[in-house]
Amino acid sequence: MTDIPFDQAGAVDAVAPPRRDIGIQRRYRAERRFRLYGLIAIGIGIFFLAALLFTVVRGGYTAFWQTSINLAVSFDPDVIDADGKRDSDPNVLATANYPLLARNALATKLGIDVDAEGNRAELRLLSGMISQGVRTQLRDMVLADPSIIGTTQNVWVLAAADVDSAHKGQIDLSVPESRRKVKDKQVGWMKTLTADGTMIERFNRGLFTFGASSRPETAGMGVALIGSLYMMLIVLVLALPIGVAASIYLEEFAPKNRWTDLIEVNINNLAAVPSIVFGLLGLAVFVNFAGLPRSASLVGGLVLTLMTLPTIIIATRAALKAVPPSIRSGALGIGASRMQTVFHHVLPLAAPGILTGTIIGLAQALGETAPLLLIGMVAFVADYPATPLDPATALPVQIYMWANEAERAFVERTSGAIIILLLFLAAMNLAAILLRRRFERRW
Amino acid sequence: MNVMSETTLENAVNEKVAAAANERIKMRGEKVGVFYGDKQALFDVDLLVRQNQVTALIGPSGCGKSTFLRCLNRMNDTIDNARVVGKITLDGEDIYDRDIDVVELRSRVGMVFQKPNPFPKSIYDNIAYGPRIHGLARSKADMDAVVESSLKRAGLFNEVKDRLNEPGTGLSGGQQQRLCIARAIAVSPEVILMDEPCSALDPIATARVEELIDELRENYTIVIVTHSMQQAARVSQRTAMFHLGNLVEEGPTEKMFTNPDDKRTQDYITGRFG
To answer: Which residues contact A331 (CB under 8 A, 6 or more apart)?
Structure first.
């Protein structure tokens, strides 16, 4: 704010410009080097991502197909109900020897005489071709419609896991017979059945519908899917409103003082707390103190809610901060109350950011394993949970459990489950991007 | 809050002058001071705002003119550590009184900001928002009438009448600013505060807004902060010069620009500092 001393300007005599030694070449080289480092870094990242996807997909895509055998099963009343007591005792139908029906059907198909002497070993091998799941499959058919007893039905039954693996070429058949699970006879039958189209690989619906099972071919992620769904719903219903309300209060209404600073620091710290700690907290508070059932998706959902809250709060606060202050002044300046300002103007503008943060928080929760192990969601659950209070598992926990199994068929199912989990995560992130685009394009 | 009840000497003198000229006092600031935390940004400002006149607040950056303007509709309340002392009245009523509802006050003392800030809604909704939250329109037809008359008064109606449902943010800068003025008018304020309304506009849009300010004077009392001396000279009847948080002097615009009492005013309007 002083007068500029004009008389000094331009007083310098014209002299040769000073020699600059700024190393142009060196600067350009430094920049080129830096760009190269960047490219290398990106390249490494892409390489590892591609390697991960390649391994998972290569190991897992076969899990979506399951070798099945088309059998003409004759529901022989002599096998199902030898004593003819099925009208008086309903247990007869439930406990009948259904695997025998399937074995006989397979024997008929292959032209093996089941009544012949001395072929017990052969018959055992024959039974080993078919999944034990056939027991429930045929039983359910009979229980649903007892009138099929005495008739012959075309049924697709699952092949046993080892046969499935062998059919997919995952078992090395050059190993001596004594050291491999699939015997030469079974391989021969497999070839016969495959040749006449009786044994084919069909889409593995069971992978999505079955519950836990110790036999790979009847093990599925149905329970885990339902459990994860329940938990996501609980997280969404609890974490979104609580998180958004907390952020709005902190960002728009709370006075800026030491207390709110403290709260802010603690929220940021919570976001960095290892998830297993949340699991211990959930175990102590929800299971031991509040007495909620173990392994229940309700408890899992509550723990994941605690975990997701900081993420949602941080994202929401960032979204609220990003709304230009001029919008707030504009609304306040024409006499809107603070609450009207927030709910009519700020929140709608922050919505895409909030939604994105929420979906990313949900995706994080979907992939979380450690806290669920602690609250007992790692249980062997074969039946669908009817309510969030019933025992259930979650997708990542299911992967963890399958990864601990030794059988070849479980290995491919592990990768298959990983593919499904990754697809869910990708879908959620895609939804986040689309929602963001859609809301931002409005103006 | 200052407990002093009688008006300060300076205001008393000015009031006599105004009464002699048959001018009504709309707003009065007495010993107004503003603190941001421990730092005082405004010192003991005594200023009268005359009804149906344009009062321009001028002065170099950081002199407190915007701060004072924001006291007039309590926009400083929204800044966390800001504290206002002294007394400001609107039609004789202390606007910092406990009984005063700040929301109602802001509907009586509207504000237009430096950067046009239309809501990211349609042109229609931009205007209709204020009347809607204040319950000023009973029916859709009422609202249409309010929107139309506000846009007409802001001189924007003919330009936008065919695209009322298009976003307000799609207009040009000058149109956006007039939309903001229309938005402020729509809630039928008595006073309109303008904080450098033309600083983001090109000369043509500026001229259009200045014309508008002159027209609006008939129905509203206007206080405008401006960095442009020419603008102050063109649109205002009274000018107040601020420097370093103090009111240097206030008077009729012609006098301020031709024969100011204070040397600082003289220096500022001739471009020697600031």
So the answer is: A340, A341, A344, A345, B119, B129
pTM of the predicted protein model: 0.81
Phi/psi for A176 (5° steps) reads -55, 145
pLDDT of residue A34: 97
Contact yes or no for B133 and A336 at CB 8 A: yes
Name the residue ranges covered by the structural domains of chain B. Answer: 9-269
Going by the DSSP 8-state scheme, the letter that residue A273 receives in this structure is S
H or E stretch covering B112? strand B109-112
Note the pLDDT tens digit of each residue in B215-238.
899 999 999 999 888 899 999 999
CB B154 within 8 A of CB B178: yes
Q: Which pLDDT tens digit goes with each residue over A255-285?
A: 888 999 999 999 999 888 999 999 999 999 9
- What CATH number was assigned to the domain covering residues B9-269? 3.40.50.300
Side by side, which strands form the sheet with B93-94? Answer: B39-50, B25-36, B82-90, B93-94
DSSP state, A391?
B
Cβ-count burial A102-114 (b if 16+ within 10 Å, e if not): bbbbbbbbeebee
Tell me if residue B199 falls in helix, strand or coil. Answer: coil
Chain segment B110-138, per-residue pLDDT in tens: 999 988 999 999 999 999 999 999 888 88
Q: What φ, ψ does residue A71 adopt, rounded to 5°?
A: -115, 140
Q: What are phi and psi of B93, to 5 degrees?
A: -100, 130
Q: Answer yes or no: CATH 1.20.910.10 is held by domain A222-440.
A: no
Kindly state the tokens that stand for A325: 């202050």
The beta-carbon neighbor of A334 closest among B80, B106, B115 is B106
Cβ pair A358, A310 in contact under 8 A: no
In this predicted model, what pLDDT tens digit does every residue of A140-163 receive, in sequence order?
Answer: 888 888 888 888 888 899 999 888
Instruction: Please choose, from the candidates A158, A169, A215, the residue with its C-alpha nearest in 3D space to the C-alpha of residue A191.
Output: A169
Banded pLDDT at B195 (limits 50, 70, 90): very high
Inform me whether the pLDDT recorded for B274 exceeds 60. no
- The low-confidence residues of chain A, meaning pLDDT below 70, are 1-14, 441-443
Annotate B55-66 with b (16+ C-beta within 10 A) or e (fewer): bbbbbbeebbbb
Contact A344 B60 (CB under 8 A): no
Nearest CA in chain A to B121: A443
Q: Say what the ipTM of the complex is.
A: 0.86
Check B184 against A334: CB less than 8 A apart: yes
Question: pLDDT band at residue B3, thresholds of 50, 70 and 90?
Answer: very low
Q: Does B229 touch chain A (CB under 8 A)?
A: no
Instruction: Return the number of other C-beta atoms located less than 10 Å from residue A73's C-beta.
Output: 25
Pairing type for strands B238-243 and B246-252 reads: antiparallel
Q: Which of A256, A326, A344 lies closest to B113 in CB terms?
A: A326
Whether the CB-CB separation of A68 and A201 falls below 8 Å is answered with yes
Which residue do the tokens 């102050």 mark? B232
Is residue A289 less than 8 Å (CB to CB) from chain B?
A: no
